[in-house]
Amino acid sequence: MKIFLQIVLVSLLFASCTSKLGKVLKSKDNEYKLKMAEQLYVQKKYNQAQQVFEDIMPFYKGSDKYEDMFYKYTYCAYNQKDFVNAESLFKTFTENFPNSTKVEECDYMRCYCYFKQSPKVDLDQTPTSKTISLMQAFVNTHPESSRVKDATDIIDQCRKKLELKEFKSAQLYYDLGRFKSAAVAFAALNEDYPDSDKSDEYKLASVKAYYKYAEESILDKQTERFEKVIAECREFNDRFADSKLIGEIKNFQSLSETSIKKLQNEQIKETPKR
């Protein structure tokens, strides 16, 4: 019974709000509509405020009130989590009001809308990449802004997300037994994120994948591919001399060297005597 009454009350409240909004929109007094739009905006009734602003903005275009109206109209979209539309509106604001004191804010918010569209790591990361480029452009354009730190932090977050996505792709190759692809993918990950605190882990993963690839290769190709593992191990030693993973790298190098010697001995045995 209580739930039923709650539904009825919500329905009545919604009908009442809709009725009031309808009366506002039907009014021919634009000043009254503007006053109501701003009142709805302050009350955080963004959907209703958006409708009223949209209805009267054409009549105020070019007036001294238009900038503030457009600014609030843009935030109506943002506060309803309509980030695609909000991004476009923030961009339009900066283009229409280049001398506004709110340009820097709207420039940042446009970038932030892309950030808010950044999906889960397993999905397409186009918005994430776009966020990085736009935030970097913001930092370059507004180097003295108080928002630079936030922009830089967001760039770092986005880069970590892209790094994680690339890592998962490389790991998937490995898990599927596609060791050559995994080795190349881990190597690319290392090149793309050279300053990552996991660089040595990515290099080790690449070495492991190259080793598995060599191990499963046909005999005629194994020596060449074990030599590739050894070369990768030496590169690891040069670059990550202080890594805690050195022991594992030495093990792969030793295993590869032993495998090559074994292959060479077998070739000697198979060589016919004259």
From TrEMBL:
Spell out the Gene3D superfamilies in the cross-references.
Tetratricopeptide repeat domain
Q: Which domain of life is it from?
A: Bacteria
Family matches, as Pfam families: YfiO (PF13525)
Keywords, A to Z, come to: Cell outer membrane, Membrane, Signal
Q: Which InterPro entries match?
A: BamD, BamD-like, TPR-like_helical_dom_sf
UniProt KW Membrane keyword: yes
Annotated Outer membrane lipoprotein BamD-like domain ranges read: 36-181
UniProt key word Membrane: yes
* The protein's name in its UniProt record: Outer membrane protein assembly factor BamD
- The record lists the organism as Limnovirga soli
Gene behind this protein: bamD
